[in-house]
Fold this sequence. Notes:
Aldehyde Dehydrogenase, Chain A, domain 2, 16 helices, 23 strands
Amino acid sequence: MGKGFFNVPIAYNEPVKTYAPGTPERDTVLKAYKDMFNSKIDVPLYINGKHISTGKTKTMSPPHDHKHSVGSYHLAEKSHVEEAISTALEARKTWSKMPWEQRAAIFLKAAELIAGPYRAKINAATMIAQSKTIHQAEIDAACELIDFLRYNVQFMADIYSEQPESTNDNWNRLEYRPLEGFTYAVTPFNFTAIAGNLPSCMALMGNVVVWKPSDSQIYSAKVIMDVFEEAGVPPGVINVVFGDPVMITNTVLSSPDFSGLHFTGSTFVFKELWKQIGNNIHNYKTYPRIVGETGGKDFILAHKTADVKQVTTAIVRGAFEFQGQKCSAASRAYIPKSLWPEVKKLVIEDVKSFKMGSPDDMSNFITAVIHEGSFDKLAKYIDQAKKDDDADIIVGGNYDKSKGYFIEPTVIVTTNPNYETMHTELFGPVITIYVYEDEAFSDTLKLVDETSEYALTGAILATDRYAITEATTALQNSAGNFYINDKPTGAVVGQQPFGGARASGTNDKAGSAQNLLRWVSTRLIKETFVTPTDYRYPFLGE
Length: 542
Ligand code: NAD
């Protein structure tokens, strides 16, 4: 075991490449995109280091070209999920005893594989599977995932070095044990980095994992598994199953050895899983850890002293990058009447300047939304806004799914601060704006706080420090990530630990030691050097 107190490499954020015309990275990623788009892959289940083809498959298609196939993935039966569980439990016997520096080395290697030889591949896969522009793919699939892998190693070392005091006569040691049993990672479509982080951070802490990715992210999930395999994650440590989420989840949660859920996705699904875990509580050998990061109705609040161009850019970038499909995307904004005419003009100008289409045309700022279900839902809300008297679409409002699931970035202005789209998460390129009287700033803070059930991200833009102070206090519980004079998106691992409260999640801050602490169960070891040999204390003396 340990023969040294090893220092881990100092973590740093992976520099974001520009992909500007003429750069080598642009040519490399476009070539990877073209090759991958024009060939077909077959994605197996990954159980015990084996690639399992079940024969039952589903086609994978890019959201921006849904009639085109890039291959298919295999669907698990119940028996495969059971095998993933039993294989994980078997792997635990050796993995949980693996020295921490060996585990660290595997995931540090994974980071460097993504930074180097896999960078173009994982970015191209994310452009194809999730319709990200190259910039959105680079900041997610490459940089954020690399950052998670590097920083998690540093956080693990920080956690392990956190030790209690000892005395001459006794030595107190804290051991950060992996959870008993196996853990379950359920990941969303929208971030390749989250898909990679949720299973890997639990494995890094010595746990074994069953991972169920989103059906809409399987192409890039496969690249993650290729990287993990090449980095040396041993068989059985991370097992991947695709298919019916209800069957897979029922099988996992009914196992007495289930010991932790690491979930990111929508609020409703998370609450259902929590309920199911509660219903099964008498069957488990240990109390399962439950970590969930879920939906948001993220706000931008401008004060009358804010800079109009800054407000416009926060709205335009915050609401529309990646088609508004970031959990942190701004989807409601509160603008004072005095700034509104100018903000309105600039927002309309900016939105009209967007180009929309396939991500391999790098002049496109907007691409498609993830799938038909999302497209239809967004179209329904847009149509309703066209009908409602208290809503007005000032730009956008069109949609077309003939080739890809394209929704025009849309700005709704409402006179009703409780209008449906001021509080419901739509998860698409739609923002709703409410214009308030300049002097009603304090009342508006109350509105921001009380309008939605979520509390994920939010931003205040102002130059008046009293207004910033008032907003920071009044909105203390309205967002887990609160931004001053910035857009509410774009958290960077190691700089802005991410997560929300209320209906948005358990706020266990991805990208921080706080999250990793959920995946260990500490054992205190007290060792006494001169052990008492008589029960009698001095006070019992004559
Ligand atoms: P989703 O809830 O539809 O799916 C998430 C995962 O849950 C997928 O793997 C899916 O297959 C699985 N799932 C779906 N139904 C299930 C069921 N009945 N039982 C078990 N598993 C089930 O979410 P999505 O569309 O992939 O992602 C978008 C959502 O994720 C948004 O609500 C967004 O706000 C949220 N999100 C939150 C964060 C955050 O950090 N707070 C980050 C990313 C995404």
